[in-house]
């Protein structure tokens, strides 16, 4: 009795007609490139997400940076009275609270805009300070998807009665040039 019957290559359940093992198909190089590109994009996105700070920086109380941060957070919260209170005497004399509220209608859109304010540096000379800021604005939509634009600006502060105050008419980070 021949016991070797049924054990040749063609009849073996794990073999195919061409002699290769099923399930071991070769992955095309183009597929590997696509997978590698996807993995690289995910890695880049993770780095960007982790590199962007999620919370506001805390500054020393009584510093020009803390004064501007308090002003900006009040504006962002829609608390125009508190934001206006952080202007210098000179600015408050030229821009009353009712006028500031009226101008908010033209500049309030900033609160709806996705933006990040980054402190680049501070210059202090006596009772005057200048904060160098970068404002990153993020936009959705369009044919290219999400995009970002950045602009730099300087905000002036003055120390009055021991407190740092904003010494220029601004709404959020936008300069108000009406009659000033």
Describe the structure in your own words.
With 180 residues, the chain is an alpha+beta fold. The protein folds into two domains: 1-52, no CATH class; 64-175, Nuclear Transport Factor 2, Chain: A (Roll), CATH 3.10.450. It contains five helices and six strands. The strands form two sheets. A four-stranded antiparallel β-sheet has the order 1-2-3-4. Strand 2 (128-139) and strand 3 form a beta hairpin. It is elongated. The N and C termini lie far apart (111 Å). Mean pLDDT is 78; it is low at 6-12.
Structural class: alpha+beta
Helix percent reads 25-40%
CATH architecture group name of the largest domain: Roll
Strands in their spatial order, largest beta sheet:
1-2-3-4
Under CATH, the topology of the largest domain can be stated as Nuclear Transport Factor 2, Chain: A
Unreliable runs, pLDDT <50, ≥5 residues? 6-12
Report on the biggest sheet.
Answer: 4 strands, antiparallel
What letter string, H or E per element, gives the SSE order? HHHHHEEEEEE
Average pLDDT number: 78
Radius of gyration: 31 Å
How many strands appear in the DSSP assignment?
6
Number of domains: 2
N-end to C-end Cα span: 111 Å
Number of helices: 5
- What oligomeric assembly is this protein in? single chain
CATH class of the largest domain: Alpha Beta
Overall 3D shape? elongated
Strand content: 25-35%
